[in-house]
């Protein structure tokens, strides 16, 4: 593992402004693949226009545990080389559509670290996001100046996808990827995190009541309601309130498939990282992560509630089912035995680094984290958890450990300071 970067101090004022900007803009598992196909959705729910969902597929989410055990301090050994004999050129021009509440913050930390370590240029927003929920526009990129724009390597912060504008900014050989989540569990997470931002969520006294009266609380076009229905479809730049038809949904997913080289699944995060590592031709340590921006607890869903939420989010369900299938096709092409081996290596390395870096085996509440630079912003009604890094580490080792647990806002401030030391 490479330890040669220093983590600069973050000013209290800068962090406060970033957090404030975030809130203001918001206002405007182990390898589980089976030999058999995914099970049919056997509920009686319907989506937009009364479309039955019994023909659609879904897979119940599985927990991808990031839990590790502490051990004594020791220097970081490099991981054993991959058994793969492939030769390739690592990719550094990358577009990541960071969807909301899908483990995107964990993926983003990986991209932050890679770009930081390799002195790549990030397309950074002026604030927390690129004027979300409005479609992405190149003029929202900090430092962008038309024909005099710099060469950007990575575009990876929250935006509503807009391909023509992205292409104005990013090199033609850029690698595009995103990540999706089962719309049922995404809906629960979104309600918890964005309750104060969505008109539909604010009307409901609690999540169970929201599920029971979806059409009563949700009105298209009301403030923040992109969080309440077909959230992923919206983030991908499509019309989340469109009436469902098979041809329209098929057209949407095919457009996405033409644009994105890889679509990951948050429920299969480790398998996703293996596929991503293969596509980017990166090293194992480049894709090892600790889970970030996770909530302390979630509301469990029974089968009926999950089916109702999937039916409510018909477009997201169609999207998820389609790319669930393509994901496992890629796994089969990669090789299931090989995937087993690579997932095991990834988890062993995560465990090894957790034992080196972290105090305790579980994430902790923000008020238990002494260092402001790695303390997660608290937003929404749930507690967002973080990690405590051991103090008795060699400086270079500790710097790398700090990078692995640095939340999005703080790391963005670090990158901003490096790219714009005098401001803009």
Automatic annotation (TrEMBL):
* Domain of life (superkingdom): Eukaryota
UniProt KW Transmembrane helix keyword: yes
Span of the signal peptide? none
Which topology term describes how it sits in the membrane?
Single-pass type II membrane protein
Annotated Gene Ontology cellular components are: Golgi membrane
Q: What's one GO MF term for it? A: galactose 3-O-sulfotransferase activity
The protein's matches in Gene3D superfamilies, at most eight in alphabetical order, are given as: P-loop containing nucleotide triphosphate hydrolases (3.40.50.300)
Report any Pfam family annotated for this entry: Gal-3-0_sulfotr
Q: Where in the cell is it found?
A: Golgi apparatus membrane
Look up the record and give one Gene Ontology term from the biological process aspect: glycolipid biosynthetic process
Residue ranges of the TM segments: 7-27
Q: Which UniProt keywords apply?
A: Glycoprotein, Golgi apparatus, Membrane, Signal-anchor, Transferase, Transmembrane, Transmembrane helix
**Can the keyword Lipid biosynthesis be found in this entry's annotation?**
no
Similarity comment: Belongs to the galactose-3-O-sulfotransferase family.
Protein name per the record: Galactose-3-O-sulfotransferase 4 isoform X1
């Amino acid at each position: 593992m490479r330890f040669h970067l220093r983590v600069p101090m973050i000013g209290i004022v800068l962090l406060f402004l970033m957090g404030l900007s975030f809130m203001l803009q918001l206002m405007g598992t182990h390898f589980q693949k089976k030999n058999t196909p995914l099970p049919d959705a056997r509920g009686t729910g319907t989506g937009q226009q009364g479309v039955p969902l019994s023909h659609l597929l879904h897979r119940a989410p599985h927990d991808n545990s990031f839990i590790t055990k502490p051990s004594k301090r020791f220097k970081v050994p490099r991981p054993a080389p991959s058994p793969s004999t492939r030769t390739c050129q690592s990719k550094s021009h990358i577009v990541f559509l960071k969807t909301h509440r899908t483990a995107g913050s964990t993926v983003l930390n990986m991209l932050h670290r890679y770009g930081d370590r390799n002195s790549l240029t990030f397309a950074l927003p002026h604030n927390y996001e690129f004027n979300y929920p409005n479609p992405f526009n190149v003029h929202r990129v900090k430092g962008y100046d038309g024909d005099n724009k710099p060469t950007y390597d990575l575009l990876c912060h929250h935006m509503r996808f807009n391909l023509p504008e992205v292409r104005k900014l990013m090199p033609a050989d850029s690698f595009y990827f995103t990540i999706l989540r089962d719309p049922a569990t995404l809906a629960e997470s979104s309600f918890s995190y964005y309750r104060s931002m969505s008109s539909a969520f604010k009307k409901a006294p609690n999540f169970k009541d929201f599920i029971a009266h979806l059409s009563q609380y949700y009105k298209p076009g009301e403030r923040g309601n992109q969080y309440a229905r077909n959230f992923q479809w919206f983030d991908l730049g499509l019309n989340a309130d469109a009436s469902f038809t098979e041809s329209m949904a098929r057209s949407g997913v095919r457009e996405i498939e033409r644009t994105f080289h890889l679509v990951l699944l948050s429920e299969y995060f480790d398998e996703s990282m293996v596929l991503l590592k293969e596509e980017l031709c990166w090293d194992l340590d480049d894709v090892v992560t600790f889970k970030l921006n996770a909530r302390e607890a979630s509301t469990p869903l029974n089968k009926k509630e999950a089916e109702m939420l999937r039916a409510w989010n018909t477009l997201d369900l169609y999207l998820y089912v389609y790319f669930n299938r393509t994901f496992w096709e890629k796994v089969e092409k990669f090789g299931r035995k090989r995937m087993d081996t690579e997932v095991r290596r990834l988890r062993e390395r995560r465990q090894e680094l957790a034992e080196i870096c972290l105090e305790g085996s579980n994430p902790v509440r923000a008020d238990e984290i002494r260092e402001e630079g790695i303390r997660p912003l608290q937003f929404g009604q749930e507690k967002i958890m973080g990690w405590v890094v051991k103090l008795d580490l060699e400086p270079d080792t500790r710097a790398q450990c700090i990078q692995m647990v640095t939340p999005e806002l703080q790391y963005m401030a670090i990158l901003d300071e490096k790219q714009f030391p005098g401001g803009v």
